[in-house]
Structures are given as structure tokens and as C-alpha cells.
Amino acid sequence: MAPPNVIIFGETGGGKSSIINLLAGANVAATSSGSVGCTFRSNAYNVSIEGMTFKFHDTAGLDEGQGGTVVKQQAIVQLYELLRSLSDGVSLLIFCMRGPRIKESVVRNWQLFWDIICQKHVPILLAITGLENEQDMDAWWKNNQTFFTRNLMYPKSVACITAAKGKKRRDGSHNFDHEYVASREKMNKAIKASYRREGWKVQRTEWFKTIVETSYKSGKGGATEVKTNKTVFGSATNELIKRKLMKREEAEELARLLMDR
């Protein structure tokens, strides 16, 4: 039986690759420093969690148009292609964001992939990284949960963590070793509790559709019915515009990139 597919996605610099290393207990995925991402295309890693193997897919940051390695639209296309290509389906989405601040792109990225593309069929785990300096990492969710509720974002599980050990000390230990180990335990527990036992196969999204317009042309013998095919925005593109996730021109450009994939 193939291992369940887990997609890790989110903003650039959110710690997606670092989470894979945290779970694996080794540096198997390349990481970047700062806000410029280093993942060009998705990479898959088999990781054992409490005796069960999962296949984690590391993906390009969805906002890497701002100086990153992948233009934002192309990063979305790559993630959509990955979701569509998995013949065994998707068992879990891990939405990775760096705290403590919440960026505007969080709502757009969440709703685009969970609501519109995955149609809410795939459970989503919210992983907030960068909380190692907080006195209580779990307090972040208590203080910010209302933001997610207000934006109709309901994660299956939440993990407030650090994916960094911090500076190395003279004795070989690291500043955040305790928080790092606790974070691994949180992620392991959340993943095992959240994933779908049977992966959901992502369906082709309706970016455009063809409608038939009927008009009548007057002639000597009376009116003649004329039918014309017209291409209009599909339900997914309309949702992007309706929810104000993208401007009309941006939504149309993305839809044209995705329509045949």
C-alpha cells in the first residue's frame, strides 16, 4: 500500500522544508535563510512517524514573486499540477505560515487550495512556525483563532511550533532544543490525528466553461435562430473574483494557465 500523500504549502520562508527536516530528524530537505525560497519544484520525502510511512511533498512558496526563485503564478501552477498528478490522492494538507504576524496572503492561499481546488475534501493542518521566542508557543493560537474563524478557515488540527534549533552552544546543544523536540511531538500527533485514510483525488477545476447563446436574425422568410458558443469564466474563476482573492485580470491569467492541466 502506497504511503499517504501529505502536501506542505504556504508562504516563502514559512519553514516548509524545515518542517520536513523536523519530522525526519535529519537535514533531508534543503532550507533557505531569510525570505527568499530555495524550492523550485516539489520534492517528495518518505518519513516514518510512529512506525507509519508518509510521503511529504515540499513545494515552492506561493508568494515567491517578491524576489524568490519562483514567480507566484508559476508556483500556484506547480502546486495545482502536483495535486492533480497524485494517482493515490491527497490525504493531508499542511498549511505552513511563519508567526507571530499574519500576512494578507494567508487567506488567499488557504481559500484557493482548500476551498476551491480541493473543495474542502482534504483535511488541513495549520502549522505556525517561528514561535521559539514565545513564552508559550500554544498561546499564539488562543490569541489569533478569531482571525481564522472570521475568515471561515477551520483547520483539522493546529500546531504552534519551532522548526529551528537555534544557535549552537559550546557544549554542542542548541538554544531551542527543548522547543524543537516538543514541536516534533506536536506535529507527529497532529498528522496522525488528521490525515485521510483514503486519499482524495483532486478533480479538474472549472476555470472556464462554454455556454450557448441564442439570438434571432430577421430575414425575408421570418426570424432565423442563431446559436453561438461563448466561453465564460467557470465557477472557480468566479469564486476567486467574488471572494476578492484576486483582481479580475489576475484571476483570468491564472485560469488560462490552469485550464488544460
TrEMBL record:
It comes from the Eukaryota. It holds the Pfam family MMR_HSR1. SUPFAM superfamilies: P-loop containing nucleoside triphosphate hydrolases. This is G domain-containing protein. Residues 6-98 form the G domain. Gene3D superfamilies: P-loop containing nucleotide triphosphate hydrolases. GO terms for molecular function: GTP binding.
